[in-house]
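Anyone have C-alpha cells for aldehyde dehydrogenase (NAD(+))? Sequence:
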Amino acid sequence: MEHNFEVISPHTEQPIAQVAAATPAAVDAAVSAARTALDSGPWGRSEPADRIAAIRRLADVYDQRRADMAQTISAEIGAPITFAQRAQVGLPAMMMRAFCDLAERHPWQEARTGFFGAEVQVRKEPVGVVGAIVPWNMPQFLIVTKLVPALLAGCTVVLKPAPESPLDALLLAEMLSQIDLPPGVVSVVPGGVDVGERLVGHPGIDKISFTGSTAAGRAVAAACGANLTRVSLELGGKSAAIVLDDAAPEKVAAGVRSASLSNSGQICNALTRVLVPEARHDEYVDALAAEMSGIRVGDPSDPATQMGPLVSQRQQHRVRDYIEIGQREGAKLVLGGTGMPDGLDRGWYVRPTLFAAADNGMRIAREEIFGPVITVIPYRDDDDAVTLANDSDYGLAGSVWTADTDRALGIAARIRTGTLGINQGYTMDPFAPFGGVKGSGYGRELGPEGLDGYLDTKSIAVAPGA
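Reply: yep, here.
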C-alpha cells in the first residue's frame, strides 16, 4: 500500500511537502527496468563518448535550474541559502563536467603482451545495476558523486534519497527526463529504512554505493554479503586537525571554522578534534572562540545567515545531549551550550559550541556528534599528536596546520586516514580520491579511482600466432 511522508522545514518546524514513498513493488520495478536498460537496451551497448555527451547535456540543464535547486535544499535541510548556492549546488554542477573530463581520458581498453606471449586485451566494463543510497546533509553533492560516475561507466542506477531530503532528488529526476536517457537508466525511490533495506538486499543489484553512519554501514555491508553484492561505504568521521607549534592562531581558527562548522557541522569530514600544543593551548582556544562567536545563526533563507538549523529535532536533541555529556566529562565549555541561539524561539537550532582542555578518551572526542561542536585537545609533542590523531575508530579525513610544508607532509604520512589537507580542510577535489579507512568505510569516490569503482576489469588473451 502506498503512503506519503512529510518533509519538515527545520527552521519553521512546519511541513513543506508530501512525498509518496516507494513501495516494495516500486523498488522491484525500478531494479527490473534498470536491468532491462543495461542488458537489452541501448544504454548497455553505448560508448563512453555517448555517455559523456549525455552528462554534459545534464550539466547544461542543471545550470539553468541552480537557483531552484539551492532554494529546495535550503528549505528541506536548513542550509543557509548562500552555502546552498555555493556548495550544495555549485559543487555538484562543477563535478559533472569534471567527471566528464576524467572519463574522456580514462583507459577504457588497454593492449598488453602477456608473459607467455599472448596478446592480452584489458577492458573496463560496467559493474551493472547500482543502488545508490545517500544521506541528507549534502544531498546533491553525494548524489552526483555516485550517479554521474556510475552513468559514465555505463551502469544503470536506482537512487534512494534520505527521507529528510527527497525534494532535490525529485528535482534532479525532472532534469534527467530532459536529456533523452533510455527508459530505466535512472530511477528515484524515495522512502525510509524499509526502502533502503529492499534495495540493499535485492538480488538484481550488482553494487551498492552507500553514504551514511558507521552503524548503518555495518548493516549494509552484512546485507550485501548475503548476495555477494559489491559495496562501497563512505561512513562517519572524527577527524583531527593537528596544529603544529608554528601555526598562526587566527589562520587556524578561520580554517577550522570553515572545515568544521559549514552546514551546521553536519559534514562527515568535519575537523571536530583540534589538537594543539599544550604550551599554546589557550592562544588557539581564544582564537577559535573569537572566530566562532561572530557566526550569524538564523533563518536559512536570509543571505546574511552563516549557520542554519540542524536537519531534525532528533538531530538537535542528539547534539545537545553530547554537549551535556562533554560538560559532565569535565571538558571546559568555552562557547555555546544547549540553549537556543539569541533571537530564535523555534527551529532545530544548536549554538556553535567550543570545548577546551579535553581528553581524547572523552565521548565528545571519540564519537561522531554531527553538529556545530568543536573539541580542543592539548598534546605534548609531534609524536603525541600523531598518536592522538590515530587513536580513533574512524579514519576519514584530517589536516595539519603549520608554516613548514615539509614538516606537515611528514606528519600527514603518519596519520591513518583516507584524506588529509595541509593548512586547509579536505577540499573534495573531483580529481582526487575521497574515502576512509577503519570505521569510516572502504572504497573511493572522486578521481579516476571513483570511476573505476563502477567498472569491472575483463582480460581477453589471444593465443600467440592465432
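The chain is about 40% helix and 20% strand.
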